[in-house]
Amino acid sequence: MDRSYDRKFVVLPETVIVTGVASGMGRAAAEILASNGVRNMGLIDNNAEGLAQTAGAVEAKGVKVHAIALSVADRLAVHAAFEALAAKFGAPDSLLHFAGISSRVPFDEIDDENADTVLGVNLKGSMWVAQAALRQMRKASKAGSIVFTGSVSARRGPVHGNVAYASSKGGVNTLTRTLARQYGPYNIRVNAVSPGQIYTPLLSKGWGDDADVIKEKLRVREEVARTEVVLGRIGQAHEVARAAIFLASEASSYITGEILEVNGGFHFD
Ligand SMILES: NC(=O)c1ccc[n+]([C@@H]2O[C@H](COP(=O)([O-])OP(=O)(O)OC[C@H]3O[C@@H](n4cnc5c(N)ncnc54)[C@H](O)[C@@H]3O)[C@@H](O)[C@H]2O)c1
Questions:
Q1: Domain limits of the chain?
Q2: 5 pLDDT exceeds 70?
Q3: Which residue from 137, 154, 190, 210 lies 20 to 30 Å from 170 (Cα-Cα)?
Q4: What average pLDDT is seen over the chain?
Q5: Cα separations (Å) of 4 from 16, 23, 119, 127, 239?
Q6: Whose CA is nearest to atom 14 of ligand 1?
């Protein structure tokens, strides 16, 4: 499959920050952007090893890379990182924020630690990276685009007992709309992709290391998807990455405050 972009249609930003790049959608987005002419890339993840691997793959495509290992839940670290990135590349044109964690704890068993962790990474983490990016964009009087990652579970209700997770993503949707309203006058667009079931390490979390068990669990998921998802299958990381890149690019210049469902028809109004 040709995963490249039609550059005549999609004018990609020059300087991009991508979070959650050690695996899944973030890694797919970083690689697609690198293959399609983005010049400077700030890469962020708390998995230092995976981060270094993605940075190496992106650099090999001729992109200037600055990779920083941190947790997006750490506000001060996020601000310091975005300042370092701006010192190196200038203010970002786009931020694609994929970093996130899942959590499957029955509602009755959610405690402070679980709620704080999930909301801290998914919701507060989204606030911190946006705050830091917007600060740099405004300082440079630069137009820009921010893309968050929500989840179908925020609209549909959680499927696997992930109430804290779905609630954090509901917060991301609200953050998307409120920031879009607040920063539209500065020509900064704020949108989100809202993935359905996408085959990444996040989906298979808790399936263990046994290849046969993983294969069987995936088979069951795919079987369910054949009836529950209009397109009849689970999605792939690059399919969400492409949608996010569309929202980050000039091709979506008149779109803001939008939560773009990328779920194969698993759920729609
Ligand atoms: N896979 C799905 O089915 C699905 C569905 C809906 C939404 N999402 C959302 O998509 C986004 C990407 O997930 P994915 O499926 O690619 O999962 P993934 O686990 O493959 O990737 C998530 C990345 O975020 C990084 N990360 C986690 N916590 C972090 C932190 N505190 N600071 C910095 N980096 C951190 C991880 O190391 C990893 O590289 C997430 O926000 C997730 O909630 C995924």
A1: 15-262
A2: no
A3: 137
A4: 94
A5: 17, 19, 35, 31, 12
A6: 24
